[in-house]
């Protein structure tokens, strides 16, 4: 009897470990993702762009799928591209920006960006804005980033 | 020959002064020019940055100055503000006497959404000496963009729909006081504004001495 109880206990512990391992696999993809150098462009117009580096140090790929905040009505993932001499802005296919395992995807001026549409407040240089990024695997990250007129890093 | 010695001394002083001015070698400039330089003095826009607003504007720089003209739209979240922020930083990096000779104009190719005064307010964020411009009408915008060599494309949309995309040339046209495009800056997301500043100083020096 005592032995059987012990066996059940071992099984329960083993099962819970398996469960923990399963849920932690997507958590670890989320944990392995860091957002660096995020900034919000000073938008004199009704829309703006948010830029950042998505750094995935894990061994699984993960994709940015969207954003949310209380300072813009909606968000889309866009990419600016040169096409026949014009700069055109395209929706990112499937609204997913992938970050491969062990790699960094940069959202930067003239390329990939999170577009914040219909701003609900006037932003100013030096403001700190908080927004939530959503990723595949039920991963979300809350980010606070400064409002800048241009990228601050590098020689600028 | 004391007079000759004085003249020589003055010459040497002048030469060293102009050397220490260290204008950028034209080969190191950012951008390019077209030959012959397109003449845009026959085009006309409406200026919303002057008082009274809504006066006709012919894109010719004031005497011995440069007018930087850009075609864009206000809902543009990425490329237009990237370009204007670069011009803003460049003008701030120029020697004051040169910076005073630069003005920046933006023509909106999206008149359905962009009101004239809003274009002026938009530009105020970047540069003081600005011209917020619209074409007088659509036919005029088409004709003017052909003269400049601007391409733009407005996505189909219903009247009243405010969410549509616009494709556009992202070139900055540098116009002199004759209305000639003497230099052009192509779009760059990460050009060092110091290079842009040195380029503009070099263009000023070459054109006006």
Relevant terms:
heterodimer, A: about 160 residues, alpha+beta, Immunoglobulin-like, ten-stranded mixed sheet, about 20% helix, about 50% strand, B: about 210 residues, Glutaredoxin, seven-stranded mixed sheet, two-stranded antiparallel sheet, 6 helices, 9 strands
Protein described:
The complex is a heterodimer of chains A (156) and B (209). Chain A has 1 helix and 10 strands. Chain A is an alpha+beta fold and 156 residues long. In chain A, strands 1, 2, 3, 4, 5, 6, 7, 8, 9 and 10 form a 10-stranded mixed β-sheet that branches. In chain A, a hairpin with a 6-residue loop joins strand 1 and strand 2. In chain B, the strands form 2 sheets. Chain B has a 7-stranded mixed β-sheet. A two-stranded antiparallel sheet of chain B has the order 6-7. In chain B, helix 2 (79-93) packs across helix 6. Chain B has a single domain, classed as Glutaredoxin (3-Layer(aba) Sandwich). By secondary structure, chain B is an alpha+beta fold. The radius of gyration of chain B is 19 Å and the shape is globular. In chain B, a hairpin with a 5-residue loop joins strand 8 and strand 9 (181-185). At the A-B interface, strand 4, strand 5 and strand 8 of A face helix 2, helix 4 and strand 7 of B.
Whole-angstrom Rg of chain A: 21 Å
Give the termini distance of chain B in whole angstroms: 32 Å
Number of spatially distinct domains of chain A: 1
Q: Could you tell me the strand content of chain B as a percent range?
A: 15-25%
Secondary-structure element series of chain B:
HEEEHHEHEHEEEEH
Give the second-level CATH assignment, the architecture of chain A. Sandwich
Largest interface, per-chain counts? A-B, 34 and 36 residues
Structural class of chain A: alpha+beta
Q: Which term fits the overall shape of chain A?
A: globular
Proportion of residues in helical segments of chain A: 10-25%
**Parts with pLDDT < 50 across at least 5 consecutive residues of chain B:** 16-20
Helix % of chain B is 25-40%
Oligomer: heterodimer
Contiguous runs where pLDDT drops below 50 for at least 5 residues of chain A: 18-25
């Amino acid at each position: 009897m005592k032995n059987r109880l012990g066996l059940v206990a071992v099984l329960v512990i083993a099962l819970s470990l398996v469960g923990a391992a399963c849920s932690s696999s997507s958590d670890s993809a989320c944990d392995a993702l860091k957002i660096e150098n995020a900034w919000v462009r000073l938008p004199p117009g009704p829309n703006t762009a948010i830029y950042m580096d998505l750094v995935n140090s894990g061994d699984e790929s993960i994709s940015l799928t969207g954003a949310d905040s209380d300072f813009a009505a909606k968000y889309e993932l866009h990419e600016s591209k040169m096409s026949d001499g014009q700069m055109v802005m395209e929706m990112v296919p499937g609204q997913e920006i992938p970050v491969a395992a062990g790699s960094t995807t940069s959202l930067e001026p003239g390329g990939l960006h999170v577009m914040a549409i219909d701003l609900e407040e006037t932003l100013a240089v030096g403001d700190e804005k908080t927004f939530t990024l959503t990723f595949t695997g039920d991963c979300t990250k809350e980010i606070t980033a400064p409002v800048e007129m241009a990228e601050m890093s590098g020689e600028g | 020959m004391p007079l000759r010695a004085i003249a020589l001394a003055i010459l040497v002083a002048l030469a060293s002064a102009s050397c220490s001015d260290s204008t950028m070698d034209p080969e190191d400039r950012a951008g390019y020019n077209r030959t012959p330089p397109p003449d845009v003095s026959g085009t006309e826009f409406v200026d919303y940055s002057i008082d009274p607003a809504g006066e006709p504007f012919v894109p010719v720089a004031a005497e011995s100055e440069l007018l930087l003209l850009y075609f864009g739209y206000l809902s543009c979240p990425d490329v237009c503000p990237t370009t204007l922020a670069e011009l803003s930083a460049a003008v701030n990096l120029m020697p004051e006497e040169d910076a005073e000779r630069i003005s920046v104009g933006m023509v909106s190719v999206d008149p359905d959404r962009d009101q004239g005064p809003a274009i002026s307010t938009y530009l105020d964020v970047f540069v003081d000496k600005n011209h917020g411009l619209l074409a007088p009408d659509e036919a005029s915008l088409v004709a003017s963009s052909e003269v400049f060599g601007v391409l733009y494309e407005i996505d189909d949309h219903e009247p009243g729909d405010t969410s549509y995309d616009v494709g556009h040339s992202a070139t900055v046209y540098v116009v002199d006081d004759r209305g000639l495009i003497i230099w052009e800056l192509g779009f760059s997301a990460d050009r060092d504004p110091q290079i842009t500043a040195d380029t503009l100083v070099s263009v000023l020096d070459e054109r006006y001495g």
